[in-house]
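Obj: model holo form, ligand = manganese (II) ion.
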Amino acid sequence: MSGIRIRKLHVRPLNFKLDRPLETAGGQIGSWPVVILDMHTDAGIVGVSFVGCFMPMLVKPVVSLLQDMGAMIEGDELSPVSIEAKLRAKSRLIGTQGPIAMAVAMIEISAWDALSKASNLPLCRLLGAKPRAHPVYLTIPAMTPSRVRELAQRALELQYAGVKCKLGHPDPSKDLALIDAVRSVCGPNFPIMVDYNQSLSVPDAIQRIQRLDDMGLGWIEEPTDAMNVEGHVKIANAVKTPVSLGENWHNPMEAARDILSGAADVVMPDVLTVGGISAWLKCAALAEIRGIPISAHSYPEISTQLLPLAATPHWLEHAEIFDSLFLNPVRPVNGNLIATEDPGCGVAWDEKVVARSAWT
Ligand code: MN
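Output (holo structure tokens):
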């Protein structure tokens, strides 16, 4: 396998139309800017990765950075860790967040995908683990009880093992109504996780979560600003429900900060945001050291490959947002997802959808 070299990065920006519009506090979202990356190698193998850019204005910088970084690694050996180290060394002065970090993580993931394909193994087997079933929840991107009921029904029909609701309504009783909406469809024991998306002050968070503490919720995600470590320590100490952090970690050092300080009871790094596959696995090692359950934020296709490598695996998340972009989108079976045996990291483009989603 050694000796394979990177030939060229092919970068494609997409304006991806969502199958179902997302309902958010800021209004409806009908399409999502996405950048997809194909890493071509001299062995004919192509490694892939993608990122959902939250804002259209991020698309151009990400595309341009990927193209420029592609030129920097053309001809390099297909060694994901070395490639990442090289790109990080060159961007260290700029920092480890934002478009540069997104581009480096995409390149790292596509390199692992290509290396797995070159080894004719799924990523988890390449790294030494058997595919395993892990429970998966459906994230419900809705803020009204009627829409939440509809999507909770969908979660039951599609055999999800739990759901996650977005909370943070100015009127706390409206948050309770969303949880009630799920309970009315899924019953009293169905796992429900909730996510405040960093919207509360620390005292507000403590007060509001204490009101939810006897509801048996799976976890409370990012109640306050993700960078507020002391605030999260205070919250975690004051409430019974586990506090979950991780989707906004930009490197394993931030994971260490939150895990070692007791800011998080459970964690959920995002493979792209945290810096790629190696970075996610370093977070898993930190979680193991403290006996903290680790889930994966988004990217269920890749994350089904990562959780079998963790010693304290917890939940997979699926929001179904990008499913139609893939040839084989993940589907729960009896509440679980299991890594495919296909070589690579689990992503293959539906080129018809890619073609009709071209960025214009
Ligand atoms: Mn979240």
